[in-house]
Amino acid sequence: MTDNNPKPPPDTPDSDDFCNQWSFELSEYMQFDDNQWMHDDIPSFSSENVSNQVHQPSNVREFEGDESYFEGSSSRETGGRENRQVVRERFAFKTISEIEVLDDGYRWRKYGKKMVKNNPNPRNYYRCSVDGCSVKKRVERDKDDPRCVITTYEGNHTHPSSS
DNA sequence: CGAGTTTGACCTGCGC
DNA sequence: GCGCAGGTCAAACTCG
């Protein structure tokens, strides 16, 4: 990873701080919290790791209509193996990027890849490689706009970033 | 050699 | 009860 990310990812997403901490462009972001999600104004953002920087505010509406995304976020918890009453810190955002794995200052290990319904692009599953940290993230490309990468974080890091 | 990736199999919940 | 879909596991493989 790089040394360009002195701050850890947002355990408590906050629009301006969140965007300033991360070195990639956010075209959309939203928070999942107890089946609620929200999106804020599109932040201005300077990127060092994202090659194409194009803001598309209109994508918010497209994202709201992603049924598969709602499914996975509101009812299914880790394959349904855990009690759905367990609410984890979870938030997702959409970026316009050629690369799927954004450099957020943590080390991630890929543990699964799956084709999902209603999306020709595979969904990739990552887990924080730090021992004892159970943070996971899912990364998939938007079915309507392959330039957009939808990243969903789940859980809180129990350690500082590796950078 | 260790860390990370790939990929098919497996498990579980949900809808019909 | 069965099939489908999403998520995870783990062995094999790759790479530095």
- Number of DSSP strand runs: 7
Low-confidence stretches: 1-13, 31-87
Strand order of the largest sheet: 2-1-3-7-6-5-4
**Order of helix and strand elements from N to C terminus:** HEEHHEEEEE
Strand-pairing-aware structural class: alpha+beta
Q: What overall geometry do the principal axes of the alpha carbons give?
A: globular
What gyration radius follows from the Cα positions, in whole Å? 15 Å
Total of DSSP H or I helical runs spanning 4+ residues: 3
- What portion of residues is helical? 10-25%
Beta-strand content: 25-35%
Main pleated-sheet profile: 7 strands, antiparallel
- What is the rounded distance between the termini? 6 Å
Mean pLDDT: 60
Précis, in short:
With 163 residues, this protein is α+β, with helices and mostly antiparallel strands. The chain has helices at residues 15-21, 59-64, 67-74; strands at residues 28-33, 36-39, 90-96, 108-115, 122-128, 136-141, 148-154. It is globular and about 35 Å long.
Write up what this structure looks like.
This protein is 13% helix and 28% strand. The chain is built from 3 helices and 7 strands, in the order H-E-E-H-H-E-E-E-E-E. A hairpin with a 6-residue loop joins strand 6 (136-141) and strand 7 (148-154). The protein is globular, with a radius of gyration of 15 Å. It binds a DNA duplex (16 and 16 nucleotides) through helix 3 and strand 4. Its main location: nucleus. It is found in: Nucleus. It holds the Pfam family WRKY.
